[in-house]
């Protein structure tokens, strides 16, 4: 299967599972189910859950046990987008060509549907840890994966990065603070996807270290590629980006370097099937849109 | 120790532990730490964490293992207040006599500090489950307590109740829908406090059932008492409450009934020290402010 075919197949798996969560969900509060579902299905690329599943599969040969955690991660990513788009945050009316959540459901329901997705992510991880665990080692493994995701999502991860992003609108930041922001806001969740997938697959500590490095490289590379594409497309930029401190050439070299480093991190897994993770790293860091 | 002395002592325990979480927490995102701390320390009565600790202690004789879960519950309660107060929700400028979070820190940081508290609650529960568990039974117990709290906080619990509350501003609701709202918005988290405390203490299924009934009675009683106090204080009410469908006398009878039922639910624990839970039930349901 080609990379794109495999991505499409995994997207279908994830979409089906996400849909199943909302089947027959009714009640007085059903407006929030609609709002959550709306944002879960506005054309997300499912990169984080796909990385989680394939990282697990690379280690263990199967991704079945990782599915609930992949869904949880996509919910956390989606809630962050809903809250980011709010009028008091980035004030975006459209995302991926569709009206943002608050434009359709109003601000109050948008905030609550974000809250609902974040909470549901944890409900799902907790419930499935109970369901899947047969022994002490299982509990430990799933809890470690949940911990990885929770840290990456929190105030020392994604939320922390978003705080710096918001504050940087009104005050200038230096290259160190930008690096912190990129690491937290974008790279943390991508790193957590790869690492938690590996943990669920049964990776040992050295393997986890290498998966972490791989995830960090593609997370940062993905973000700098974004900055390069923004310049290429000549979009209006008032924000501080990697290109505020570096030339376009340096940025491209950095992306090239991260791409190679990501590939190198996979070398210890050479007895496993690493094709997908190798190809998707290249694809994410070197994409043209 | 009198009930009030004991409540004051437990509040101190909880405040100290909450404070400890933020000691030496600095970083580019430190504005969010300030915002989270601000709302955690604006005079909350700590009812939910106190119930959690004392329910655990009633079963096991100690509440040490329950502390992180009590903190998590208070964080979830606090995040819900921050988001409830937002302009697009209840639009409150003051809470407990102090400016609300968004009045001090702005809407964006208020939303993010709510998100941060919700996420941190789960980080703490997950981390301490790993830390405290020596065997399979421990993992199961702490995960069950976390599940109880997560369900009560989510779209079929507190968030679901808040959705109905928001929607009821623009459309009238009947008594069944009001009951749903009360059960979700107020009672669910109080019930979860008592039940999860019991689970951590090692309660068996019959004991959990009785703790659940106890928690549900005081949760609902607490809310109806609120409605009665609002009438007594002649506050302007445009909202549907228990008194929209029932006379003041019926409401008082209902509260009396719930108070007795709560007490009855504790009978099976008569060999344990139930004084505190008996007294706080009466205190919460029959309070005058």
From TrEMBL, chains A, B:
Q: Which GO terms describe its molecular function?
A: (2E,6E)-farnesyl diphosphate synthase activity; metal ion binding
Its EC number(s): 2.5.1.10
User: Looking at the keywords, is Membrane present?
Assistant: no
Q: Which Pfam families match?
A: polyprenyl_synt (PF00348)
Cite the entry's keywords alphabetically. Isoprene biosynthesis, Magnesium, Metal-binding, Transferase
Instruction: Output the GO biological process annotations, alphabetical, semicolon-separated.
Output: terpenoid biosynthetic process
Q: SUPFAM superfamilies of this UniProt entry?
A: Terpenoid synthases (SSF48576)
Where are the annotated coiled coils located?
A: none
Any one Gene Ontology cellular component term annotated for this protein: cytoplasm
Q: Does the keyword Zinc apply?
A: no
**Enzyme kind, highest EC tier:** transferase
PANTHER family cross-referenced by the UniProt entry: FARNESYL DIPHOSPHATE SYNTHASE (PTHR43281)
Q: Which family does it belong to?
A: Belongs to the FPP/GGPP synthase family.
This protein's name: Farnesyl diphosphate synthase
Q: What is the organism of origin for this protein?
A: Anaerosalibacter bizertensis
